[in-house]
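Quick start: what a row looks like.
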Amino acid sequence: MPDTPFASPTTSRQLLQSDSYRGYNYVLEIHLNPDEIKDPPITRTISCPSLAVFHELHQAIQIAFGWANDHRYDFKTFDPDITRHHNPPLGGIPGLNILVSEDKILWISGGRFTSSEPRRRNPVGFNHSEITHNPLTEEGLGNSSKDLWLCKLFDHPSFHGLTFEYEYDHTARWRHKINLIGHQEATNRFVCTDGEGHRCADGVGGPEEWNMLVAGYHTTDPTPEQRKMMKWYECRCPNGDPEGLGPERVQKWSSDDRDEVNQKLMGLRFENTELPSC
């Protein structure tokens, strides 16, 4: 498909079920902690094969944002209707609709969570009644991020118009808001097409600590804590920058940065040739 607005769920499913369908690429605009990291914002735009799986998208986001890939992750969708109908929110997460991780898929059904792990009860962080078999698994959605196609969620009528999020490091809570902004012709690889802002420091602690670190480089008199953080960032941070984060450096995102990211993304060339029954 050429660059067009996101197709309606009905149109998308017709495309997926047609004999001529061979996939297309989603154009995803991804924004790191947009409510907390603003000066500058950190964003990346990635073109992703619709027949890739969510674990491959995780790897692509890690490369595009320059993360060290040292922590667990998950993908979530949010539905405002769930927030209105459930108080307190299920799982303690307002509006949570589905959670996809490396080892499970959790799904809200009939006011409680179901899971791709039929015998598991009360996963960590979800204090609810018995976890049952995930009905979507029967539709061929898979059991984890490693076998769940992107098109199974992005083109599923139940998820049209919902908010998607990728969270990396559940302690630091690096939350990446994902917006599907269009389609492109199908390719067999991920490509980063745009971006803004220097990569964030993996291990700094979270958005608040990142902002404190950046502020230390933007003052003539950093606090002792900021000086300590700056030394750590330049010398010991797993994805740090020995040149620091001065006003020009923290804004840095150039065509050279994009090309470097895309060179690394070449290693994620998409190999799936099977047509899923979406």
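That is the whole record. DSSP finds eight helices and ten strands in the chain. Residues 1-21, 118-138 have pLDDT under 50 and may be disordered.
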